[in-house]
Amino acid sequence: MEELLIGLALSLVASVGGGWWGLRRLSQARHLLDTPTSKIRSAAQGYVEFYGVLEEQADTAIVAPLTGKPCLWWRFKIEEYRSNGKNRSWRVVESGRSEGWLLLGDGTGHCLIDPRGAEVRPATREVWRGNLRHPRGVARSGWMALLDGGKSYRYTEERLHSGQPLYAIGEFRSSGGGRQGFDPSVAQGAVIREWKGDFAGLLQRFDSDRNGQLDDQEWSRVRLAAQLEAEDRHRQHSQRPARHHMGKPGEAQPFILASAGEDELARQFYWQAAGGALLCLAGALAMAWLLGESWPS
Fold first, then answer.
1. How far is Cα 216 from Cα 293, in angstroms, rounded to an integer?
2. Which domain holds residue 248?
3. pLDDT tens-digit profile of 133-143?
4. Who contacts 264 (Cβ-Cβ below 8 Å, separation ≥6)?
5. The pTM is what?
6. Where are the transmembrane segments (predicted)?
7. Count of domains observed in the chain
8. What is the DSSP code (8-state) at residue 268?
9. CA torsion, ordered 182, 184, 190, 192, to nearest 10 deg
10. Residue 37 to residues 48, 103, 143: CA-CA distances in angstroms?
C-alpha cells in the first residue's frame, strides 16, 4: 500500500509539474512572438522588446568569480561529487549571479537594464572540473580538460561580454527628455506635502500676520507657490537628457535577456512546452495504471 501511495504521489507531481511547465513555456513563447520589436529612441512606455549590442559602462569593472575574466554579467555554480554506496550525484554547494546593470545600444539610443529577476540565457558558458572548492585560474580546454575526469568538483560559469548581441524583453520606462506626463494637481500636492514636512519653514514663508497659523488667504498663496514650483521642477526635469531603463514587469509577463534571437527562443520554448505536455501525459497514464493495478478484480 505504501509503495502504491508513493507511486501515485510521484505520478501526480509529474503530471501537474509537466502541465504547469508546458503551459508556462507556451505562454512565454506567445509573448515573445506577439510583442513587436521597438527602437529605444521611439519605444512606447510599458512592455517592449529590443535587439541590440551590449556596451561597457564608464567606471564599471566586473570580473567573473571563477575564471577571473572581465565581463558585463556572470552566473556561476559549484557542484561537489557525492558517492554513498550506489547513490552517486553532483550536489550544488555554491552558486551566485551578478546584479550590475547592463547597457544596451541599438543605434538609436541606449537603455540601462536591471537584470534582477530576469531569465538570462547567455551564449558564453564554461564547464570544467577540479579538486578545490574554489578553482584557481581559467577553465581548461581541449585535451587538458580530459585530465580533470576524476576531480571531485565541477564548475559552471556563464557570462555576457561587451560587443555581444542581446535580445531583451521586459518593462520599459524613460525619464527626462520631456517623456513624462505632467499632472498639475498631483505635482502641486506633492510639493505641498514636501513643504508640510518642515511646517516651521512653511509658516516662516507664508504666515504674514505671524499668528502661528495659516488662514484661507495664506493657504491660497501656498497653493499658488506650490503650483509654480511644480511647473518649474517639471520644466527643469524635462530639459535633462532622456534616460531609458528596463526591468522586471509587474505582471506575469516574461522578463528575458538572451544572446539568442526571438525566433530561436520561441522555438526552444515550444519544444520545452511539448516536453512538459508529454511529462503531464506520462504522469496521468502512470496514475491510471497504478489505480487499475490496485483495483480489486
1. 85
2. 2-176+241-294
3. 888 765 555 55
4. none
5. 0.67
6. 269-291
7. 2
8. H
9. 150
10. 7, 18, 43
